[in-house]
Structure formats: structure tokens, C-alpha cells
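RECORD TYPE: protein structure
NAME: ATP synthase epsilon chain
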Amino acid sequence: MADHKFNVTIVTPDGTIYDKDTTMIILKTQNGEMGILPNHIPVVASLQIDAVRVQLEDGEDKIAVNGGFVEFSDNAASIVADSAEIPEKIDVTRAQSAKTRAEQHIQHAHEVHDKDELARAEVALKRAINRLSVSQK
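PREDICTED:
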């Protein structure tokens, strides 16, 4: 059975937030969605703001990952991200407030034609939506 699993670890500047054995991970890279199974060829890919889905024998874990990169080799996946949260650690009220603020900033950026503010607000909105989506497990 060991040949049918591999380890996935997610680390942020605050430390390791996830470390389990899995049968498959599904993640969204800059080039599209990617699934990794045991014995996959080595790969390094940058990640989009999205949920990383970890397949387990009894279900699936979802982790909100805000960018970063994945490196897979020797049957181990390491995900390094600026921030990442498991559903139980997501403050839904804070995420909803961040979503509302980002939407207000987007509206303001459109009104004043500020492309930099718009770009920052769109990233903030993606992060908030990702966190809210993962929190609903």
C-alpha cells in the first residue's frame, strides 16, 4: 500500500500547516489544473490562488493556498506559500469583511481609473473568495 501514497507538506512563513500522506493532490497552477499521483515525474510549478485538494482514503481535505509553488520529487510534494489555511483555522467573519473591502476597492478603482489599486483589490478579492469557499468544506 505504501507505493500508492506519497507525502504532501504545505509550509508558510509561519511554519508547517499541513503534513499528511495522500493518494493524489489536485492543484491549480499558472498553466491550469494539475493532478499528481504517486511516482509522478519530478515537477516544479507556480500556483494560483485556489484550493489545494488532497485525496484521502476517507475523503478529501481542502486547503486555501494563496499562491506559491509546488515541488514534487521522490514521492513527496512540498507546497510553499505566502499563506495557507485549513478550513478549521479560517475566520469566516474576517474573510467576509475582506471580501466586502476588496469589492469596495474594486469599485473605487474603476471610478478613479486606478489600475494599480484595481490589481491589488482583485488579488485581495480572490484570496477572500478562496478562503470562504474552503471554509464551507
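COMMENT: DSSP finds two helices and ten strands in the chain.
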